[in-house]
Amino acid sequence: MRMPRPVRVIAVTSGKGGVGKTSVSVNLAVAMAMDGRRVMILDGDLGLAKVDVMLGLQPSLNLSHVLAGQCSLDDTILEGPAGVMVVPAASGQRSMAELSPAEHAGLVRAFSELQRPLDTLIVDTAAGIADSVITFSQASQEVIVVITNDPQSLTDAYALIKVLSRDYGVARVQVLANQVHNVREAREIFDSLQRVCERFLDVGLTPIGAIPQDEWLRRAVRRQRAVVDAYPSAPSAVAFRQLAALTAAWTAPEGPRGNLEFFVERLITREPVLGVGT
């Protein structure tokens, strides 16, 4: 028998908080789902959950209950707009923000038990270089680093990319400029990050677009809605749909890389078992 189809796993991360990373994760996921894909979001900011708040969801179970053995991962899943599946984290629980690397790895492996049909998992990580950020990013096939036109955002993004590439073998990073005024500004901040990475690191950076500053996006956040759902004609909504279309063209994973990965069993194709006389 063949295993279920591979799941594309995308980590959305940043070196600095406050750059709109969760908004990117949510809107990218909803845009993908509106395009017919089966999408799940994992709130990877384990102690300071934001995805459920941004979508106006009210979970009764979350990842803290999974780790406590009170429920399965499947029990926590909520349905968001366009059918997006959401795995919520805890809010205000310091213990969840201080999990060991082994516990983070256990969460990654728990996804292999999910039997739901799924095309894409988006992991909205915490910001910075905490253990959870590193584990979830390394266990994903694609890493999107969100940056803004803020010197601290670029400095911290470089620090994160340095750790991922030098210490954990992440050789390719996608870079998304957020909250920009125009394409020129996006290109300038990407070039600034690329210059320092080319000088000191052996890692490939790819610009994947820009999300403009947009009052409609701020209104959607206040309404606890995805802007692609609430205001589909808004400039930011158009940009998120373009980003979703771009990800659809990314090469599908061909097999496991040999380290910790989400849904690693789905990357291994089993040969059909032949019975006697066949």
Relative helix content: 25-40%
Number of helices: 12
Inertia-based shape: globular
Class based on secondary structure composition and strand pairing: alpha/beta
- Record the strand order, biggest sheet: 3-4-2-5-1-6-7-8
**Beta strand %:** 15-25%
**Main beta-sheet annotation:** 8 strands, mixed
Following the backbone from N to C, one meets helices and strands in this order, namely: EHEHHHEEHHEHEHEHEHHH
Write a short abstract of this structure.
The chain is 40% helix and 18% strand. Strand 6, helix 8 and strand 7 form a beta-alpha-beta unit. The longest helix is centred in the middle third of the chain and has 18 residues.
If you had to describe this structure to a student in words, what would you say it looks like?
The protein is 40% helix and 18% strand. The protein is an alpha/beta fold and 278 residues long. It has an 8-stranded mixed sheet, sandwiched between helices. A hairpin with a 5-residue loop joins strand 3 and strand 4 (85-87). Helix 1 packs across helix 12, helix 6 runs parallel beside helix 7 and helix 8 packs across helix 9. It starts with 7 loop residues before the first strand and ends in a 30-residue tail after the last helix.
Question: What features would you highlight for this structure?
Answer:
disordered C terminus; 8-stranded mixed β-sheet; 18% strand
Describe the SSE topology.
Layout: E1 8-14, H1 21-34, E2 39-44, H2 51-54, H3 63-67, H4 73-76, E3 78-79, E4 85-87, H5 94-97, H6 101-110, E5 120-127, H7 131-138, E6 142-147, H8 151-168, E7 172-180, H9 183-200, E8 204-212, H10 215-222, H11 227-230, H12 235-248
Parallel strand pairs: 1-5, 1-6, 2-4, 2-5, 6-7, 7-8
Antiparallel strand pairs: 3-4
Helix pairs in contact: 1-12, 6-7, 8-9
